[in-house]
Amino acid sequence: MNTKYADLHLHTTCSDGSMTPTELVRHACEAGLSVIAVTDHDCVDGVEEAVLEGKRLGITVIPGIEISVASATETHILGYGIDIHSKLLSDRLRDIKEVRCERNRDMCQKLCDLGFEITLDEVKKNATGDLFGSTHFAATLLKKGYVSSMKEAFDKYLAAGRPAHAQAQCLSPEEGIELIKRAGGGAFLAHPHLIRVDDSTLRSFIVRLRDAGLDGIEGYYTDYTPEMEEKFRGMAEEFGLMISGGTDFHGSMKPHISIGRGLGNMRIPCSVADAITNKFEKIYL
Predict the structure, then answer these.
(1) Domain segments of the chain: what residues?
(2) Among candidate residues 93, 52, 17, the one with its CA nearest the CA of residue 251
(3) With bands split at pLDDT 50, 70 and 90, how would you rate the model's confidence at 1?
(4) Chain mean pLDDT for the chain
(5) Which of these, 72, 13, 33, lies nearest to 262 by C-alpha position?
(6) Could you report the per-residue pLDDT of 65-114, keeping only the tens digit for each?
(7) Regarding the domain with residue range 5-84+186-280, which homologous superfamily does it belong to in the CATH classification?
(8) Residue 196: left if φ>0, alpha if ψ -120 to 50, beta else—which one?
(9) Is 212 within 8 Å of 178 (Cβ atoms)?
């Protein structure tokens, strides 16, 4: 009997991926995945299309989102099994979009101050949806020859702590969790290593979020070492939290990451997805 696999952290052209929702589902199917989650940044515009294509191809698509929340570095909350038609969710995503626009203006100004000739209109051209952000800034820097790779753009200029990074966010971590919960979903802390704090601080932060309603931690992720996987899954077990897992696939925007396989060796068993769908997924579509 063939083992079935999942990927619960994927992006489409509705945020900063290179594949449309339909293309993403077809690509996942071709890669042999059985369950995926569409988790675009601060956006659910591609979910319904992906779910419908999943039904046609026989692959389960979990309605999801990745919400950016305020922190000194980078903190994202994944939502699974959400009602994408929730009015509360729609209203708050509109607020988030306005703050994202402010953040983009700030990022553009910082790059200009560093000597780069770059405009928001140029960056928008690298986005296919209404939302754009740091990945599209990186693509613009690459296209104009200022950097040799997307990774270099982030490492030198755009990542947390770098000179063009912009931090303005609409929601606190607790508010992000509450929004997901009120939209009927489960809230999971994405890639906790990118919060870039020591283990003691991270543990305290996770406990704080658990007490605010956090349901789980991303226990599988492209950049994790075996030691990190063990640590984060251990924290989940210690604090009574579930685990999720995903590659953070963006297509050609992050070409080194393969769907379902990350850097090549990753495999997320469907039991991880099953635990999430059994607890959170309802029929909204």
Answers:
(1) 5-84+186-280
(2) 17
(3) very low
(4) 94
(5) 33
(6) 999 999 888 899 999 999 999 999 999 999 999 998 899 999 999 999 99
(7) Metal-dependent hydrolases (3.20.20.140)
(8) left
(9) yes
Q: What percent of the chain has pLDDT over 90?
A: 84
Q: What's the rounded Cα separation, in Å, for the pair 37 and 27?
A: 13
Residue 255, phi then psi, degrees to nearest 5:
-65, -15
Interval 203-252: pLDDT, tens: 999 999 999 999 999 999 999 999 999 999 999 999 999 999 999 999 99
Structure tokens at 56: 């046609």
Q: How many residues belong to the chain?
A: 285
Q: What is the pLDDT of residue 2?
A: 63
Tokens of 268: 């997320």
Side-chain half-sphere exposure of 28, counting CA atoms within 13 A: 37
Distance CA 106, CA 127 (A): 18
* H helix runs in the chain, sequence order: 21-30, 47-57, 87-113, 120-124, 134-143, 150-153, 173-182, 199-211, 226-238, 270-280
Name the packing angle between helices 173-182 and 199-211 (round to 10°): 40
Judged by average pLDDT, the poorest of 86-90, 158-162, 256-260, 261-265 is 158-162
Question: How many whole angstroms separate alpha carbon 117 and alpha carbon 196?
Answer: 31
Cα separation, 177 vs 181, whole angstroms? 6
Q: Return d(Cα 214, Cα 210) in angstroms, integer.
A: 4
User: Do 201 and 208 form a contact (C-beta atoms < 8 A)?
Assistant: no
Question: Exposure of 248 by Cβ count < 10 A (0-12 exposed, 13-18 middle, 19+ buried)?
Answer: buried
187/181 Cα distance (integer angstroms): 7
Longest dimension (CA), the chain: 58
Give the separation between CA 30 and CA 41, rounded to whole angstroms.
24
